[in-house]
Amino acid sequence: MPPITPTERQLSRRSLFRGAGALGLGVGLTSLLNACGVASPGGGGAGASGGTLTVGTDATSGVFDPAFYTTLGDWMVVDSVCRGLTFCDFTDPEPQPDLAESWTVSDDGLTYEFALRQGVTFHDGTTLTSADVLASLNRQLNADDPTLPDGASRPFQSLGRNLVSLDAPDERTVRIVLQGPDGTLLARLSDIGARVVSKAALDQHGAEIGKHLVGTGPFRLTAATAGQSVTLEAFDGFAGGRPPVDRVVMQQVQDSSTMIGSLISGAVSVTQFTPYSAVGQLRANDAVTVHDTPYCYDAMLLMDVRRPALAELGVRRAINLAIDRQAILDQAFFGVGTLPAGYAVPPSMPGHDPSLADLSRTDVAEARRLIEAAGAVGREVRLMAASDTWHPRAAQVIAQNLTDIGLRVVSDSVDPAAFFSRVMDTDDPYHEIIVWERNSYVPDPDSTVGNMAVPRGVYGSSATGFDTLPGTARFTEDTVAARNMPIGPERTAAYSAIQRRWAEDFMVLSMLVHSTNLVVTGASVSGVNVNALSTHRCFLEDASVSGA
Fold first, then answer.
1. C-alpha to C-alpha distance for 31 and 62, rounded to whole angstroms
2. How far apart are CA 111 and CA 165, in angstroms?
3. For residue 49, what are the contacts with CB-CB under 8 A and spacing of at least 6?
4. Using an 8 Å Cβ cutoff, are 417 and 71 in contact?
5. Of 109, 66, 68, residue with least CA distance to 484
6. Which residue would you say has higher pLDDT here, 242 or 161?
């Protein structure tokens, strides 16, 4: 392993931003920085308001583990209980120190050395050391780690493909050595999969850590009932100061009318699972505030090329051409969004390129011709969608669109708590056409194109079988190259070329709409990071409820 050289420099927040561009690392870094955020000092201190903040969520399985995605509600719990080495909160353009108080980067951009913040306490009373960081990250890099639950998604595992070593010279220092530069590393370390868990808790609970999660975040886990709710209590020892509210309740609410009524009555304080159908009604009601947040996520169809019904490229192209995206925008999103002119890169993200609009055009006549040419008239295709938010209405539109071009559609509506496991199960009988979404947990094309247009992971392997098609291996190399270009026209062109080839030569992903998760808060609620929440990132350390 190469040693740290004397020329390494300590990077302040501002010098890090400038130095990354000089090193050619600004690609991911500076582009991330354009939309990423700053660690809030957090905490309510003497002005704490007390009371309970109730957050309406999609579902909870009662399992909260950075290495194991279950539901978005469970992911929000992880975000509230644990912190990472860095922090990105979607309001200010710089990744900030968090559990790492500072870092150095070698001149070649390959070696990162993180100095851990002193005196940080976990909810179990143990003190943060490098051993906690290594245990938390290494379990995601090792599929055989005994602390992993069955079916662990290990979202941080992709780092391993570019990793030379991850070690700790001492208890206050963590060192990461890469094979090649990665301009997105600092922001990726702020993601949910890179959250740090108490090693003592991992040693005690092993693969059951998801039921006993212990972090250093503003709230600690105190109770959870699968299918109902999760209770978090303010952590007095949070490094940023005690949060204003005493507790947060993550309440599962899957019925749209119940969510609307709960917001108006105050039973739910905040949610990003607001039904789009209620946007007009809620904007007109003084009891709540509907927040305008950037269009930052992809609504899409994923097609499994391993299934005989979708084996021909012509059939997949026909499905893409059949989709009435304006109808989906109007009927499922009630106008909250925009057509996907930039294919997989939303308009709020660096690298959005409207010249890709033709990849998401509608041409029913051409779609019918392709179905006839493939001899697929009357062929059965299976469509799977979650039963919450926009998904059912979109699935209805899509089913009619595909019927109109000569296909026979059989649909399945899936409980949100079970949906991800169905996506991962390639033997599932409905694993053909999947209605899904990609949230920009880190706001950069690397989080969308860089994750989806590669023959690995959930999108390229489990969901679509993209990795089984000849000629897809080059996408890994191309996305890495794009990630490490300086932000600007050249980088945008590189991502656009990847997307055009991905769509025209393979078509495993059909874009539907770019939208935002509609954030609504009660009139008495303040301090919620609504931009982060619109991407399902949950930063509530500054939230308060007046009159509590």
1. 35
2. 9
3. 244, 245, 544, 545, 546, 548
4. yes
5. 109
6. 242
**Facing residues of 378 across strands?**
none
Kindly tell me if the per-residue pLDDT of 354 is higher than 90: yes
**Relative orientation angle of helices 13-22 and 26-35, to the nearest 10 degrees:** 140
Q: What is the pLDDT of residue 5?
A: 30
Q: Which residue has the tokens 């503003």?
A: 218
Output the six-digit token pair for 180: 């090649």
pTM of the entire structure? 0.79
Which two three-digit tokens encode residue 538? 């949950």
DSSP string, 388-418: STTHHHHHHHHHHHHHHTT-EEEEEEE-HHH
CA–CA–CA angle 328, 329, 330 (5° rounding): 90
- Are 297 and 437 within 8 A, CB to CB? yes
Q: What was the pLDDT predicted at 92? A: 66
Alpha-carbon distance of 260 to 267, in angstroms, equals 10
Q: Do the beta carbons of residue 310 and residue 304 sit within 8 Å?
A: yes
> Which 8-state DSSP code applies to residue 5?
P
Are the beta carbons of 273 and 253 closer than 8 angstroms? yes
The rounded distance, in Å, linking the Cα atoms of 259 and 271 is: 9
Mean pLDDT of the chain: 89
